[in-house]
Amino acid sequence: MRRIIVLGSTGSIGTQALDVIRANPRRFELVGLAAGTNAEMLADQAAQFQVEDTALGADEAEQLVRDVDADVVLNAITGSIGLGSTLAALTAGRTLALANKESLIVGGELVRSIAAPGQIVPVDSEHSALAQALRSGTHDEVRRLVVTASGGPFRGRTRDEMADVTPQQALAHPTWDMGRMVTTNSATLVNKGLEVIEAHLLFDIDYDDIDVVVHPQSIVHSMVEFVDGSTIAQASPPDMRLPISLGLDWPHRVGGVGRPLDWTAATSWTFEPLDDAAFPSVALAKQVGRAGGTFPAVYNAANEQAVDAFHEGRLSFLGIVDTIARVVDAHEPPAALTRESLAETENWARRTSDRLIAAQS
């Protein structure tokens, strides 16, 4: 039986993780819960699962990870504020089921330097798919990773056709039910850019060998192409409980967490190239990923500020990625990558973003 701590327990990933744990009482024991601000829901969850150790806020969550004995920490906190908990879980020697991609992207080599081989298990559906497919060959046999994208609500639109996009339209994702930040990131494809950086950091594959392809059905969650021309794809209906369950019990599969595909029904899957002119966020992410250091932290922090400004009516939809690009261009990295320099860089990026956004307003 694996002892589990769930961070971000009141969010989409967190609540689905609790569904998996609830359905498998002989496999998992919930020993800790942490939420951001929803104290009432956190208390209800703790009572339901008879969990004594809970935390509210990022600092308390980090302390919970240090103090509570557990085998697996599911980090489903939203945003780079989850970095402390990621570092705490790795330092404590726990398996990190990572749904908080921002902490790996922002922490970069700082996170990788303390992670033991296999200690980080991805929970994002795309990276879980890659991890599953990569079991079909060795690292040297990989030709490229192919990360799939639904294309979001604006697939097929030109840049000019997205000039007047509203927050309500940006939140109308065709496939996934996610929070405001992630859903907006999927509309701009910033989320896919972050996933490309995450794929590089998780699997040590060069950026030139990581491609993004648009697959609107969201059935094939990602693919690995090998040197012999074979491509291994992981396919399943869009349901996050499958990658969550793998994150909790990797490399073992948990029966009954998701429904299989219906192979008796006629269906079509389509794949389209990414329109880099309409969605420049992926190419920009590769640029900052190659630069490394604090550049990915700048990309992420600028995006978080811009998304908030967009939903508050202070920035256009196209202004989100434009703002990120301007902040990245203005960044001068510090001499050393430390937790302190990351925090200072993020603060600089947020201030710079706010200043640029205010000037546009």
Concise account of the structure shown:
The chain is an alpha/beta fold and 361 residues long. The chain has 15 helices and 11 strands. The longest helix is centred in the last third of the chain and has 22 residues, at 339-360.
Reported for the largest beta sheet, the result is: 6 strands, parallel
SSE order: EHEHEHEHEHHEHEHHHEEEHEHHHH
What percentage of residues falls in helices of 4 or more residues?
A: 40-55%
Task: Kindly provide the name of the CATH class of the largest domain.
Answer: Alpha Beta
Low-confidence stretches: none
Total strand segments? 11
Distance between the ends: 54 Å
Widest beta sheet: strand line-up: 3-2-1-4-5-6
Note the overall shape: globular
In CATH, what is the homologous superfamily of the largest domain?
Answer: NAD(P)-binding Rossmann-like Domain
Q: What is the mean predicted local confidence, pLDDT?
A: 96
- Our count of helices gives 15
Radius of gyration, in angstroms, nearest whole number: 20 Å
Structural class comes to alpha/beta
Tally of structural domains: 3
CATH topology of the largest domain: Rossmann fold
* CATH architecture descriptor name of the largest domain: 3-Layer(aba) Sandwich
